[in-house]
Amino acid sequence: MTVTADTRPLDVLADFPAIPAGWHYLDTAATSQKPKPVLDAINRAYGETYATVHRGVYQRSADMTLAYEAARKRVAKFLGGAENEVVFVRGATEGINLVAQCWAGTQLKAGDRILLSALEHHSNIVPWQMVAERIGAEIDVVPLTADQRIDLDAMEAMLTERHKLVALAHVSNVLGSVLDAKRATELAHRVGAKVLLDGCQAVPRMPVDVAEIGCDFYVMSGHKLYGPTGIGVLWGRYALLDAMPPYQGGGSMIDRVTFAKTTYAPPPGRFEAGTPHIVGVVGLHAAIDYVDSIGLERIHAHETALVTQAREALSQLNSVKLFGPADSAGIVSFAVEGVHPHDVATILDEANVAIRAGHHCAQPLMDLLGVPATARASFGVYNGADDIAALVAGIERVTRIFG
User: Fold this and answer.
1) Which strand ranges, in their side-by-side order, compose the sheet holding 113-117?
2) Could you tell me which of 97, 207, 256 has the C-alpha nearest to residue 87?
3) Residue 320, helix vs strand vs coil
4) With left for phi above 0 and alpha for psi between -120 and 50, is residue 192 left, alpha or beta?
5) How many Å apart are CA 369 and CA 363, to the nearest integer?
6) 81-94 burial: b if 16+ Cβ within 10 Å, else e
7) Over the stretch 44-76, which tens digit does the pLDDT of each residue have?
8) Do the Cβ atoms of 395 and 314 come closer than 8 Å?
9) Cα angle at 350 between 347 and 354, to 5 degrees?
10) Measured between alpha carbons, how far is 213 from 218 in angstroms, rounded to an integer?
11) Which of 102, 200, 215, 361 is labelled catalytic?
């Protein structure tokens, strides 16, 4: 029996109270709007069940600790890892910095090499530059293919045994191009390099299984996954985490403290100093449950259809230049000839269409594309054909104003 994926358009806009009628939110790649189940979970956690975790012996604290650790278990299942490999951080940026300081900063030496790609977000560039400058390592950059994907053939040719780390975006936040993460990991492992993947744009849009991919570290942010801000995840292989020193010192991350010597807790607690973002973790759990209730395969199909529709409509406008591959994941970047993207976004806003305009924290990519910035429309589960119609009508108005 053949089971076909459900490709019907999603109809969940009513779940998102912050999207009023007539407002077209097309900036999900920057941050997603929040569904009622997530808002309800946050409100309950603050208004009914709030207490600290890991320290209190009273019942409510014990219950909240159970909820906090249940969220860790939920994340592990969501990513295909183990509970003791899930570190809660403030976001993907902190997760990358943690690996940069505590793994690369202690394992790499002068002359070692780090491999990035030309489309990386600043958060997956600057932390590695900081470490490389300190220890004398070098950074290499993988180019893009003609259709603006990470060129894995070029990567294969570039890799040497001096490369100790490869850090790549699973999905580009500008181009929407999807990395063949498993192949990239296999190529890196052939020369003994470890692999970190930036999954911020991937986890809201497609199933991710770190065991299947085979990577060594994976980072994600909750607020792009329909969860709250200020919470993210670093997944890392336990053996690697266990060999890493702490990122910060303080409460909770210790085993025993004396003025003579301090010993540290095993991972993941070693990397979670201080009182954590308890309610953020609860909200993240609710967000994962919400996404799974729809189904990531269905979300991917829905967003793929929207991207196809948007690209087809925009390609009919002679003054519009599209960036990224035709099968980009939930993201369409474009430029209007003779009009700065900020002006495009401002005029669209007058029509209640919210898009992103700028360099999208990817200035090296903008240099490669030969533009100072792009306009970017990005889709979520709440978007539909009416949002694309409003976007196209708004851009037609832009061309009339500047024509």
Assistant:
1) 86-89, 232-236, 217-221, 194-198, 163-169, 113-117, 138-142
2) 97
3) strand
4) left
5) 10
6) beeebbbbbbbbbb
7) 999 999 999 998 889 999 999 999 999 999 999
8) yes
9) 80
10) 10
11) 361
What is the rounded average pLDDT for all residues in the chain?
Answer: 96
CA distance 77 to 248: 27
Paired with 165 in beta bridges are 114, 194
pLDDT digits (tens, 9 = 90+) for 299-348: 999 999 999 999 999 999 999 999 999 999 999 999 999 999 999 999 99
C-alpha distances out from residue 300 to 15, 147, 228, 232, 284, Å: 19, 20, 21, 21, 20
- 370-402 b/e with 16+ CB inside 10 Å = b? ebebbbbbbbbbbbbeebbebbbebbeebbeee
Instruction: Give the integer Cα–Cα distance in Å for 272 and 102.
Output: 13
**In the predicted model, is pLDDT for residue 6 greater than 80?**
no
Reading the block at residue 179, the tokens are: 């990395």
pLDDT at residue 5 tops 70: no
**Encoded tokens for 384:** 């539909």
Spatial CB neighbours of 44, under 8 Å, sequence gap ≥ 6: none
Q: How far apart are CA 254 and CA 272, in angstroms?
A: 10
Tell me, what amino acid is at 323?
A: F
Look up the pTM and report it: 0.96
Q: Is residue 215 flagged as an active site residue?
A: no
